[in-house]
From TrEMBL:
GO terms for cellular component: periplasmic space. PANTHER family: ARABINOSE-BINDING PROTEIN-RELATED, BLR3389 PROTEIN. This is Carbohydrate ABC transporter substrate-binding protein. InterPro entries: Bact_solute-bd_prot1, SBP. Residues 1-34 form the signal peptide. Belongs to the bacterial solute-binding protein 1 family. It is found in: Periplasm. It comes from Phyllobacterium salinisoli. Transmembrane segments: none annotated. Keywords: Periplasm, Signal.
Length: 434
């Protein structure tokens, strides 16, 4: 469902076109008469307090620019991925939308639906572009053209329920290697505790396991070669070994009952309700598990611990290599100048500091990181700052076609329906078709 928040609803003609194009319904805001320029902002944020922060920032901008109406539109994660291609081709394309970067953004840039932001961001000696972490800008640059405004950076790590670990006698600080992690899973199961909350319904939450295992076994050199169709590609022995370790985890049946049908919000709810001890998740897990829990409160923040994905003994990857997000706002080709002006405002140091203080983001704006107050978020930021190789999510970095295969293969290997060799070959075949 698309929800719209703003000073005025879209025109009835646009409503009909949007519903026809996407098959989705939406709720529109009500209030003052339409402003001269509507800026449509498409996001997938589910935490109400975070949306409220954005609404407050938009309201401040609107107060200073009364001829602009910022309208927040929402799509849930899976609908966003499924419907966005159609929406971008419609008359009612958003003016800017959430992006994970990588091959997906690159493919979108090649369709002609996105605005090249290079000139705008490099104007006045690069006054705008220089406000962001250079690595963030680089992640949104293809063929020397910038296609998204940096918003946040993040890293995936393990979060755990301290009370359940104590009950089972598991020490998080002792989980340094993959073998240590497997032993912890076995110990939790023996104590009658579901070890891991898994989101098999959406598939992508579980591809983090395979991705990290590839990184820990092969290191940056092996993954880079595979991605660029060099050497043995995804048939490299280190990648096969990652699949074998994933299969080993699957044989332990570590996830909650029905995990193959669980969406990501439901998975966060499983963790937040204390029904699983571990979740491999994002830097803002503490807030998201609370939102998705049955009582709306979830686990107390002091009952949640965090540790990095462990190393693989003998692997080429380092404990300081991180997997995670590089997120920004992609702008569509026909967006008005006011959309760019608002994005520059939304992602400036002061407003990114506000978002960081609210526990929303590890900011991409330089100097805004001092706003991070949440201890778990700070731990993620510190890990990211010390990263020796930060890799974008595999399913995003490899592009939509190969990414879908990666997600499918992960589930098939976990459930024993496909061998690690067969999975690697499927990914290699999909890459060769690119």
């Amino acid at each position: 469902m698309i929800h719209l928040y703003g000073k005025a609803p879209l025109r009835a003609r646009n409503l009909s076109a949007l519903v026809a194009a996407t098959g989705l319904a939406f709720l529109s805001g009500t209030g003052a008469s339409a402003a001269q320029t509507v800026v449509k902002w498409l996001h997938l944020e589910t935490v109400p307090s975070y949306v409220k922060v954005w609404e407050d920032i938009a309201a401040k901008y609107e107060a200073a620019h009364p001829d602009v109406d910022i309208q927040l539109q929402f799509l849930d994660n899976e609908a966003f991925k499924a419907k966005l291609p159609t929406l971008l081709q419609s008359e009612d394309a958003p003016d800017f939308f959430y992006s994970w970067g990588g091959g997906v953004l690159k493919q979108q840039s090649e369709t002609g639906t996105l605005m090249d932001l290079s000139d705008a961001m490099n104007a006045d000696g690069g006054a705008w572009v220089k406000t962001y972490n250079p690595a963030a800008v680089k992640g949104f640059t293809f063929n020397e053209k910038i296609f998204a405004v940096p918003y946040k950076m993040g890293t995936v790590s393990f979060f755990y329920n301290k009370a359940l670990f104590d009950k089972a006698g598991v020490k998080a600080e002792g989980i340094k290697t993959w073998d240590n992690f497997i032993e912890a899973v076995k110990t939790l199961k023996a104590a009658g505790i579901t070890p891991i909350a898994g989101g098999g319904g959406d598939k992508w939450p579980l591809h983090f396991y395979w991705s990290y295992l590839v990184m820990r076994n092969g290191g940056q050199e092996v993954f880079s070669a595979a991605k660029n169709k060099e050497g043995e590609g995804f048939l490299d022995p280190a990648i096969i070994k990652a699949g074998e370790q994933l299969a080993e985890l699957g044989k332990l049946e570590p996830f909650q009952g029905g995990y193959l049908g669980a969406t990501w919000p439901q998975t966060l709810g499983v963790f937040g309700d204390g029904k699983a001890a571990i979740i491999l998740s994002f830097e803002n897990t503490e807030a998201n598990q609370r939102t998705q829990s049955g009582d709306g409160k979830g686990l107390a923040s002091d009952n949640i611990g965090r540790f990095a994905f462990p190393v693989v003994e003998g692997g080429a990857g380092a404990a300081t290599d991180t997997l995670g997000g590089l997120n920004g706002w992609a702008v569509t080709r026909k967006a008005p100048p006011q959309a760019l002006d608002f994005l520059r405002y939304l992602t400036d140091k002061d407003n990114e500091r506000i978002q960081a203080a609210a526990g929303m983001i590890i900011p991409a704006a330089l100097g805004a990181e001092d706003g991070i107050a949440d201890p778990l978020m700070r731990a993620s930021a510190d890990q990211l700052a010390a990263s020796t190789w930060h890799q974008n999510y595999f399913d995003q970095d490899l592009g939509p076609a190969v990414g879908r295969v990666v997600n499918d293969v992960t589930i098939e290997i976990l459930t024993g329906q496909m061998s690690p060799e067969e999975g690697a070959q499927m990914i290699q075949d999909a890459l060769e078709l690119e």
